[in-house]
Amino acid sequence: MPNYIEKRARRWYAALDIPKDVHGKRRFFQSLQTENESKALRLAAPLVAHWKQEIDHWRGDDETVIEARVWRKLIHEERDPAQRELLRDAVVDRVDKIWQRGAPPPDTRDEEGDPLTMKEAKSQSTTWADADKFGKVALTDSIEIDEHFEEWLADHDVSEKTTSDHRRAMRDLKERFDIPDEVDRRAASDFVRHVLRQRLAPASINRRLTTYRCYWQWMVDRGYLPDNQRNPWERQSVKPREGDEQKRRAFTEEEAGALLASLAKQTHKYPDDLAIAELMAVTGMRVGEVASLTVDDLEFTDEAVWITIPEGKTEAAARSVPVVNKTVASRLKERAQGRGEGYVFQAINGASKENGRESAYKKRVARALDKINDVPEIVANHSWRYRAVKLIEIGGDIERHIADYFVGHKQQGQGLGRYYTGPNPPKLLRAARKVTLPKVLS
Fold it and tell me: Which of 120, 159, 183, 218 is most buried (CB neighbours < 10 A)?
């Protein structure tokens, strides 16, 4: 269970993320008081098992599965065949009691007046689904749906981002199903239509389906699932419908703050990343504009640090932008001292290549954002710009063309002459004061 331990300052900690559907804190985290990885794994196992039981208890709808797991463990660990059969008989009795608890009265008849068949009685029982699940978990060798997931991940040499995508896909599946036997063709299709389709773009859904499809086939190949069991995820896919096109949007304050907090944890390794993101947050600058920023482009005044952007992605990109936030202005001054005409952010790309200096930064921020969520309309280096415009517009006393100038945006159908005849410093300063750092970190 290597994903359940983390090393910090030479010591190992047990860690378990709490699913989003469970309210409260975001994760369990506890020191194991050891620097030995093997010992940490042994110590973490009972902790993680206990935490998972707590999560199931918080959800309040998995008590049947929790009890069934106990029975399954007792049966599997019993070495005496006779005692093992007695345990199985006890489970059968328990299954009968569960479904009978919600069964229709014995004298219930169908529409033609005939006594109900067993199949009809079970279909009318409000507890048959729980009973059926209990029996499958306790009596069969059915594995839990994520029981071998980490083993599958370990068999695949993929990037950190892809691994994160796989784990997120499994968390979504685990919230709906407990064992693979529950996932037949119809259940898989319903999961796609009624769960994934409601909150994800087609491209994101198809990535999840690839995870499920490959994981299922791997379990069959390894003998964890029967050879003759059809992969329920085969030929499951989603095609974009009209209106499915995802438009980029601004960060919410919570999302923006979470991203900056994530980057703050990496300042020892990437000292410029947080400062770059904060500058983009208060100016709406493009990442390429920040990456090519030199000390000569900065002008320090009592009111602000004025940034001159001589050229950029579009004709509208050439502009002057004030930075009034004291934290961001202070970071700019620190980096400008003693650097002559060099780049302001010299560590943005590690190797400090002049061409494509921002590429490594983009990848790092994408990974950080991916750990927060994978909402397709949020793209870090663009969502800052939309957030800046949104904050300026919320003020209500600044014209839209000032907001467009502030972020270097040209609206379709409008010429530059309307608002690029020259910057208006007082209005730009007013706009800059509205584009604050996220409130959670201000």
Answer: 183
Residue 24, Ramachandran bin (φ over 0: left; ψ between -120 and 50: alpha; else beta)? left
How far is 318 from 284, CA to CA, in rounded Å? 13
- The Cα-based distances of 287 to 252, 290, 428 in angstroms read 19, 5, 20
For β-strands 11-17 and 27-31, DSSP reports them as antiparallel
* pLDDT tens-digit map of 37-46: 878 877 877 7
Q: Are 298 and 336 in contact (CB under 8 A)?
A: yes
- And the tokens for 286? 């493009």
Amino acid symbol at 58 = W
Question: Is pTM, for the whole model, over 0.85?
Answer: no
* Residue of 320, 282, 283, 326 lying closest to 303 (CA atoms): 326
Nearest to 297 by CA among 325, 313, 316, 320: 320
Identify the three-state secondary structure at position 309. Answer: strand
The DSSP call for residue 233 is T
- The per-residue DSSP string of 63-123 comes to HHHHHHHHHHHHHHH---HHHHHHHHHHHHHHHHHHHHHTPPPTT-B-TTSPBPPHHHHHH
Segments in the chain below pLDDT 70: 1-3, 19-26, 53-62, 140-142, 160-161, 240-247, 312-314, 338-341, 349-357, 374-376, 410-423, 440-442
Alpha helices (H) along 284-424: 287-291, 326-336, 359-372, 380-395, 400-407
- DSSP, residue by residue, 164-201: HHHHHHHHHHHTT-SSGGG--HHHHHHHIIIIITTTS-
Backbone φ and ψ of 57, nearest 5°: -65, -40
Q: How much is the pLDDT for 420?
A: 44
The whole-angstrom separation of Cα 310 and Cα 320 is 8
